[in-house]
Design a protein that fits this description.
Oligomer: single chain
Structural class: mainly beta
CATH superfamily: monomeric porin ompg
Largest sheet: 12 strands, antiparallel, barrel
Distance between the termini: 39 Å
Strand content: 35-45%
Helix content: 10-25%
Radius of gyration: 20 Å
CATH topology: Porin
Length: about 325
């Protein structure tokens, strides 16, 4: 299948680029940079590898394993919310368990599983460009992900071919840290799939996301993101779908980040929430979500503090 070949090619290309960078790092980095140039990289454009729903340009540190549990509750208001569901806390719209591993400081691979559609995902995330104070103005990270629907079909003709269960997401992420207080990123994406919601819903679905982080004080930051889908490559759908919008507050306590997130998407995985966000902020379809992340430094780590770190956000 052409989509499968394209996806595998991109994964192999990212891996080759990472291995090449690693091989040249020791030999060329110290020789080509002066002592002043070695420290001109702009670090921590975002504080985590995720913002609210979407990926950031950040990658895992080399040999660090991130164990991640994500949870989305139900509607806070509207027809399916309010006090009857304790404002959504009685309902779990989606759950996610996953592992991300830093092969190098710039290459992350991962695997996960979501409750929705019993979706398994396999990802690779390669940082291609690093923002610098005296040169490169942006960060560029390539994110690619394959999704596999593992649930039983709802009808006999839902998954006629095994390839109907597969979706592929390719997303270059561009970000810039404009100041110590403000970072912004743009996330164009192409989602390739076989199963759609009709003729007005194309198999190759384009989206364009925007995200930002504003540091309010030393320990508190505001994050937000919006993904434009419906006004790009699809219009006039019979099903009522909305563009994903999420906001959150990040609270830094020592080495940990606590974040309160609110979004209109029921689903957690990009292959699910980009094409099928069914809730609207205007109609009370807002839900609370959080992530519990535990970071393990495996083998010999470059990090100054190799101890296990926990993050809730």
């Amino acid at each position: 299948m052409n989509k499968t070949k394209l996806f595998i090619f991109l994964l192999l290309l990212s891996a080759v680029m990472a291995m090449r960078a690693s091989a040249q790092e020791v030999d060329s980095l110290l020789n080509s940079l002066s002592s002043d140039q070695k420290f001109n990289k702009v670090e921590f454009t975002f504080k985590a590898t995720h913002i609210v729903l979407s990926q950031s340009t950040e990658t895992q540190k080399k040999r660090d394993l991130d164990f991640r549990i994500r949870h989305h509750f139900g509607d806070i208001g509207g027809k399916f919310g309010n006090a009857h569901t304790l404002y959504g806390l009685d309902v779990a719209s989606d759950l996610f368990i996953g592992f991300d591993y830093g092969v190098t400081d710039k290459l992350t691979i991962g695997i996960g599983r979501s409750k929705n559609d019993e979706l398994f995902n396999f990802l690779v995330k390669q940082k291609l460009l690093q923002q610098k104070t005296d040169g490169m103005p942006i960060n560029l990270t390539l994110f690619a992900q394959m999704g596999l629907v593992a649930r039983e079909p709802f009808s006999s003709n839902e998954f006629v071919n095994y390839s109907d269960r597969l979706t592929y997401l390719i997303q270059p992420i561009l970000s810039r840290k404009f100041s110590s207080s403000f970072s912004f990123q743009v996330m164009p994406a192409l989602l390739m799939r076989s199963k759609t919601l009709g003729l007005a819903d194309p198999e190759n679905l384009f989206s364009l996301g925007f995200a930002g982080r504003l540091k309010l004080n030393k320990r508190l930051s505001f994050v937000a993101e919006y993904t434009l889908v419906n006004e790009l490559s699809r219009n006039d759908l019979v099903a009522e779908l909305y563009n994903p919008l999420g906001i959150g507050l990040e609270i830094e306590t020592g080495g940990h980040i606590f974040s309160l997130n609110f979004m209109n998407s029921e689903y957690i995985n990009e292959n699910s929430f980009i094409p099928t966000t069914k809730k609207s902020w205007k109609e009370g379809g807002i839900r609370f979500g959080f992530t519990i992340s535990r970071n393990f430094s495996l083998f010999q780590s470059k990090n100054k503090n190799p101890d296990t770190k926990s993050t809730i956000y």
